[in-house]
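Checklist before submission:
- one chain only
- standard amino acids only
- sequence pasted in full

Submission:
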Amino acid sequence: MTQDRPTAAELVRAVREFLEGDVMAATEGRVQFHTRVAVNALGMIERELTVGPGLVAAERERAAAILGPDISGHEDDARELEIALAAAIRNGSLDDRLDAVRDHVRATVREKLLVANPGYLPPDPSA
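Returned file contents:
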């Protein structure tokens, strides 16, 4: 269901900015630490809401391309595709496509970091 503004991401951003700007400056010690944790969690939620759907679609597309016809019924579920991909890696059936698997894993980890903590990413996207 589509909601009017403010969107969920805008609401999360507003709360995060309040905590970061007002509460952090007015607290110290344990409360400030927990505020910092809340700010980080809200940042993750905000990024998940804004970029997450596109990242999941890209992950799903890459995994499906690697698995090919072996995906029977899991084409729309990124988590199921990743489970199938992990099984195929373990059983050796993707040994002839290791470059594609490696590229997919790198891209997927990078995308997860874009949501979890973009600051951990190296400046060079190929790293």
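Reviewer check: The chain has one domain: 8-120.
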